[in-house]
Amino acid sequence: PVPPAIDPVALSEIAERVALEAGRLILDERPRDLGVAETKTSDTDIVTVMDQRSQDLLLTRLGELRPDDGFHGEERGGRAGTSGISWVVDPIDGTVNYLYDIPAYAVSVAAVVGDPSTPGTWRPVAAAVVNPLSQECFTAALDAGAHRTVGAGPRRRLRVEDAPLGVSLCGTGFGYDADRRRWQGAVVAEVLPHVRDIRRLGSAALDLCRVADGSLDVYYERGLNPWDLAAGWLVVTEAGGVVTDLEGGHPGATMTVAGGLGNHADLRALLGRVVARVGQEKDH
Ligand code: IPD
Ligand code: CA
Ligand code: CA
Ligand code: CA
């Protein structure tokens, strides 16, 4: 249950403010000679200096605005809080797009209740996802809806559409581990004949927001971390959509499936059958 002292709308305004500021930073200060600063779990799992700078900015700003809250981000540095609220941030979601200057990356900021480092125990109450290049800003607050603005344009409420799965445009993504990718390739091959088409756009946070605004119909991915998923999850559910794992529970590392009421159920059922056929990741 959400502690009564929490004001999701006020938290979403903070999320929006800091995400816009970090978005400006990664856009305005992207070095011309941007390279890979370090790699993490594999050679393809990259970090740039701007991932770290964006996270540092979010850590500092949220610490000033909400000193009692926890902070849980993708890059190094975090803190435990005392308020029961934590900020779950992806300082650049879509780092590979950012490295290649493909305009599909975002800053993702969510306020969650529960413990974001323990799977299944937390849920988002406020969120903002900002694509600094397109100037799109998606926000959501628990029980107060999801909205999209572009630059200084009007704020529009989002409503998930629910196209039949067979004519749904389906987003997905791939992790950085070679065995996982083989498994994901086998799964996507079995999903492709059952949907309108597949898109791999390169930012899980934006993929989820696209389900909310209808520029994708459904989305699934294995292996997401809380920072990939926290903000976009709330944007979808506040737009009337559904986000779960394969069993209908908390979305996360095993699987995240997003869509409208009907196509989510159909995609989840399809993925259940496909995963049973394709077998375990370690066998690929
Ligand atoms: C990645 C992106 C990508 C998804 C990967 C994520 P990053 O996040 O969201 O679309 O397929 O699973 O790890 O590393 O760019 O923040
Ligand atoms: Ca990353
Ligand atoms: Ca990410
Ligand atoms: Ca990232």
Automatic annotation (TrEMBL):
It is an enzyme of class 3 (hydrolase). Keywords: Hydrolase, Magnesium, Metal-binding. InterPro entries: IMPase, Inositol_monoP_metal-BS, Inositol_monophosphatase-like, Inositol_monophosphatase_CS. Its cofactor is Mg(2+). It catalyses: a myo-inositol phosphate + H2O = myo-inositol + phosphate. It comes from the Bacteria. Its EC number is 3.1.3.25. One of its GO terms (molecular function) is hydrolase activity. Belongs to the inositol monophosphatase superfamily. This is Inositol-1-monophosphatase. It comes from Janibacter alittae. The lineage of its organism: Bacteria, Bacillati, Actinomycetota, Actinomycetes, Micrococcales.
